[in-house]
Amino acid sequence: SNWELSAARAASVVHFLARAGVEPWRMSAVGLGEHRPIAENTDEKGRAANRRVTVVVLTGQREAEPVIDHEVPWAEGPAVEQR
Predict the structure, then answer these.
(1) CA dist., res. 76 & res. 35, Å (int)
(2) Count of structural domains, the chain
(3) Which of 3, 10, 48, 65 could pair with 29 as two cysteines, CB 3.0-4.6 Å apart?
């Protein structure tokens, strides 16, 4: 499924960063599948744009808003745990 492919793509980035020396406990991976597109999925260009990984670097200060909120009314599946 798109969700599984998305999660695998995110996990591969975490593995890459771990091999590069980032401590694994400092990272997490979330796959959102087709639920957060940045482009239309009607053509190859749009689908390619949606096959992305977003890396969020936290500075140690707690964000005012969660990076991914867990109240996504149009998403199906498990919620993402808030930090």
Answers:
(1) 8
(2) 1
(3) 10
